[in-house]
């Protein structure tokens, strides 16, 4: 009898976590490493939110709660959806989990059956396909190419849908590309979904508030109200509120689905951290002013990275609408050789050679389902970004 599950053999560890861990190990060993792999803001959690967490501890709010969230947080989430997205939900339609990842996983575990498919645009967040596999489903990858600004076309979505399609996973602004869909672009996709009433929509809006320039965020059930009854709208406090370690994600959708997700969570983690829930209440109900201030810094960093990478022959770096990532193409570098004799055959070789030769850690594009590219997180200091991009320029200039 084998110890490990056959299901586990279908999935792989998170490449983004692996890159971050490798960079940390090299730094601990004394190497001058700049890690650009982590998907978290470098800002501290705002003081009002930290104070709310401290107040919860002081008041003894440290016991178990309802499995999927305290009533106060569910009310705050309902108010947020109404305020920001024009969506009406009741607390019974809301689920709170230990981060957005658990919310997505709960939904898939509660709904997937063998032979059912999930359409996932590529480039995708690394965990989507593996969560589908763990839930017993089949990921169907629909490419969103550089030529289309990394946005899925209605034609590509239509082609990917079959009678076995259970879910369409949608993420805007996107991890890893930062691409954001306009109202009209999203309406074109929802028009396709309206022709396929058996397909449910799982929309990952985690980067909603990280939107730059003139880009206006919108979400599927907002653009097409007729999709409301088959949409799970997922969000969280990690990115906009710099609360990655607090581990609070949430979603709203039909009560039957939310109830099924609650059942899954009741037999896995049970309730999210009680103190974190009270901090999240303050995040959603309290001042939102620092979001705009942080976005100014993110916009400056994005422009810095895009400008410096665009100076490199062989690299094409689109300017993203949101999130805090860029996803440059290295198609023009494939086949070139480093001074140490390594031939750049793909983006994984590129990322490995870059780390070994310069100490700059990025995530290779194959991890996100579209090559030859790499992802940079610009959620770090201007100084680190300038130095990293300078090293990238020097590394690429030395290729022959």
From TrEMBL:
Please provide the record's keywords in A-Z order: Aminotransferase, Pyridoxal phosphate, Transferase
SUPFAM superfamilies named among the record's database cross-references: PLP-dependent transferases (SSF53383)
Q: Which CDD domains match?
A: AAT_like (cd00609)
Coiled coil region boundaries: none
Top-level taxon of the source organism: Bacteria
Task: Check the record and name the Gene3D superfamilies matching this protein.
Answer: Aspartate Aminotransferase, domain 1, Type I PLP-dependent aspartate aminotransferase-like (Major domain)
Entry's transmembrane regions: none
Q: Which Pfam families match?
A: Aminotran_1_2
Enzyme class, one word? transferase
Listed GO molecular functions? L-aspartate:2-oxoglutarate aminotransferase activity; pyridoxal phosphate binding
Which residues does the UniProt record annotate as the domain Aminotransferase class I/classII large? 31-392
Q: Which reaction does it catalyse?
A: L-aspartate + 2-oxoglutarate = oxaloacetate + L-glutamate
- Report the cofactors: pyridoxal 5'-phosphate
Q: Which GO terms describe its biological process?
A: amino acid metabolic process
Give the E.C. number(s): 2.6.1.-
Return the InterPro entries for the record: Aminotransferase_I/II_large, AspAT/PAT-like, NHTrfase_class1_PyrdxlP-BS, PyrdxlP-dep_Trfase, PyrdxlP-dep_Trfase_major, PyrdxlP-dep_Trfase_small
UniProt lists the family membership as follows: Belongs to the class-I pyridoxal-phosphate-dependent aminotransferase family.
Complexes and interactors:
Homodimer.
From the Swiss-Prot or TrEMBL record, give the protein name.
Aminotransferase
């Amino acid at each position: 009898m084998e110890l490990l599950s056959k299901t586990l053999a279908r999935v792989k560890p998170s490449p983004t976590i692996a890159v971050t861990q490798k960079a940390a190990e090299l730094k601990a060993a004394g190497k001058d490493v700049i890690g650009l792999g982590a998907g978290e803001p470098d800002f501290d959690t705002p003081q009002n939110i930290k104070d709310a967490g401290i107040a919860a501890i002081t008041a003894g709010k440290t016991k178990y709660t309802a499995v999927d969230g305290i009533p106060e947080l569910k009310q705050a989430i309902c108010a947020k959806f109404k305020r920001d997205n024009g969506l009406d939900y009741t607390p019974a339609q809301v689920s709170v989990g230990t981060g957005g990842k658990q919310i997505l996983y709960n939904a898939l575990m509660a709904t997937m059956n063998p032979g059912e498919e999930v359409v996932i645009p590529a480039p995708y967040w690394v965990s989507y396909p593996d969560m589908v596999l763990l839930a017993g489903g089949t990921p169907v990858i629909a490419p969103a190419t550089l030529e289309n600004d990394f946005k899925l076309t209605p034609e590509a979505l239509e082609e990917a849908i079959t009678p076995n399609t259970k879910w369409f996973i949608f993420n805007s602004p996107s991890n890893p590309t930062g691409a954001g869909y306009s109202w009209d672009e999203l309406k074109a996709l929802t028009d396709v979904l309206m022709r396929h009433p058996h397909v449910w929509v799982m929309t990952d809006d985690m980067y909603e508030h990280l939107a730059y320039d003139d880009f206006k965020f919108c979400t599927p059930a907002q653009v097409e109200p007729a999709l409301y009854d088959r949409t799970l709208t997922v969000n969280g406090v990690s990115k906009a509120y710099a609360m990655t370690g607090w581990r609070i994600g949430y979603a709203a959708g039909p009560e039957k689905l939310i109830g099924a997700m609650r059942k899954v969570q009741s037999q896995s983690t049970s309730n999210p951290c009680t103190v974190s829930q009270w901090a999240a209440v303050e995040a959603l109900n309290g001042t939102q002013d620092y979001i705009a201030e942080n976005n100014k810094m993110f916009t400056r960093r994005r422009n810095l990275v895009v400008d410096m990478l665009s100076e490199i022959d062989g690299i094409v770096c689109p300017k993203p609408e949101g999130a805090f990532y860029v996803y440059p193409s290295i198609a023009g570098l494939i086949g070139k050789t480093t001074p140490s004799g390594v031939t750049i055959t793909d983006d994984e070789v590129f990322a490995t050679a870059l780390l070994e030769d310069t100490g700059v850690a990025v995530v290779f594009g194959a991890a996100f389902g579209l090559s030859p590219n790499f992802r940079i997180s610009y959620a770090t200091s201007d100084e680190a970004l300038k130095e990293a991009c300078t090293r990238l320029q020097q590394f690429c200039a030395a290729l022959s």
